Amino acid sequence: MVIKLKHTFILLISTTFILSSCAQAQAQAHAIIKIGLIADPQYQDAPGSGERQYRESLWKLNEAIDTFNYYQVDFIQNLGDIINEEWRSFDSIIPVYNRINPDTETYHLLGNHDFSIDSIQMTDLLETLSMPDCYYSYVKKKWRFIVLDATDYSYYANPLHNHPIDKIDGSFASTEGLPNHYDWNGGIGEEQQIWLKKTLDSAKSLHQKVIIFSHMPLKPEHATNLWNHKEIVDIIESSSNVVAFINGHRHEGGYAFENGIHYITICGMVNTMISSYGILEIYRDSLVLKGFGNQQELAPEQTASHGWKVLLEKK
């Protein structure tokens, strides 16, 4: 089977120059898990605005699904904002996700633009996205994947979450004077934080390594960060089994490595005339992120204190 990727190139470099002998051997081994990653398609049948090409996301997502099928990923994790506005946008883009191989699951999470719909339609969001709840976790081959709801404390999503408005006001007010003081961001509420701690404890007791997915980033410092990002960082960095935190929302992408955790922001699909998506491969003691289209090469190698490495490649 041959896949033709629009405006996509493949760069072949001898691994002798970029990998240690140990990492090279791992890269040649069979990946334990392969994950298709997509962030911010923001589809809408509307003209583009600046760098955002809303209509183009349909063919770009089709390309990503073809690539995921070709590489036989184990599952897809969407990182939020699959639409820009209007409920009918879901009717066009959800069938594209459904083109994935029948035995490959697709997991969604909530982004701020997914709430750019009539408030009475918000109760149908979880069913439309086949989500068991606003935040949840799942296990694959002794790995725990935690899906957070970054829209938990927010003004735009409260018709669904129904939190006391003073809780949202307090979370937003805590960012006064900070780069992320925008109402299109959000925070993770008290109940979700309790659940996160319990889920991390459960994973640790079962000797499961953990990757966390969210729409909004935690690091590095940026205008798009979660309102209470420091609280969440404290929780996850106190857990020794968290390997990576992966998110969307910041369309240009980003990367930080701190206290043994890789903070990876996947580039937004909507912000390019080519495409942007990735495949995360999990090996015994390394992660390899393969970028396609606009997904940039972030770093050749970073080594974590617990022996983990992340190798980020460009396709």
Task: Give the key terms.
alpha/beta, 8 helices, 315 residues, Purple Acid Phosphatase, chain A, domain 2, disordered N terminus
Which percent range describes the beta-strand content? Answer: 15-25%
CATH homologous superfamily (4th level) name: Metallo-dependent phosphatases
For the termini, the CA-CA separation is 18 Å
CATH class: Alpha Beta
Helix content: 10-25%
Helical stretch count?
8
Low-confidence stretches: 1-24, 298-307
Strand order of the largest sheet: 3-2-1-10-11-13-12
**Total strands:** 13
Q: Name the CATH architecture.
A: 4-Layer Sandwich
> Which structural class matches the secondary elements?
alpha/beta
Q: How do you describe this structure in short?
A:
This protein has one domain (15-314): Metallo-dependent phosphatases (Purple Acid Phosphatase, chain A, domain 2, 4-Layer Sandwich), CATH 3.60.21.10.
